Amino acid sequence: MNLYKNAVEKNKKLIEDAFEYIWKNPETGFKEWKTHEYLKNRFTSLGYNLTEAGNIPGFCAEFDTGKSGPTILVFAEMDALNVPTHPEADPKTGAVHSCGHCVQTAAVLGVAAAIKEPGVTEGLCGKVRFVIVPAEECIEIDFRCDLVKKGIIKYTSGKAEFLHRGLLDGGDLAF
Questions:
Q1: Average pLDDT, 10 consecutive residues per value, the chain (175 residues)
Q2: Is 167:155 a contact under the CB 8 Å cutoff?
């Protein structure tokens, strides 16, 4: 157990920095481009190859243990809520991470970093696919319907859109 704890502890600053950045840059669904770029840079610096969603924010990054087994999908949601009365809401957009996605996403980045530490995957098999997904909160429906009309998305939620785009194909279990 100490191996895993130490692997996470070694990446504590990465996790804290990610939380801080995402908290200070809240973006609502299908608009999470700053968060996308920030996380994309962190995942690639950890050595991950990404499968990007394309014309919407989000991507997948997969870790293969090299041993036969299931593919586990680990989700991190990037979007914030519109709560303009929140004391820390973005003054221009009213967005704030009052839903906690900034914590969730920073934690998943931490897991992606920790799994790369020596010895961590000794007892694991299969693959872990980190799914960095937009638009989990069901808000700004007019904006999303406009994206549908323009043919940018087919579904108004990020997970359904990722499923439609094949980014979840081959997954055996999701968290």
A1: 85 96 96 97 97 97 96 97 95 92 94 93 94 96 97 97 98 96
A2: no
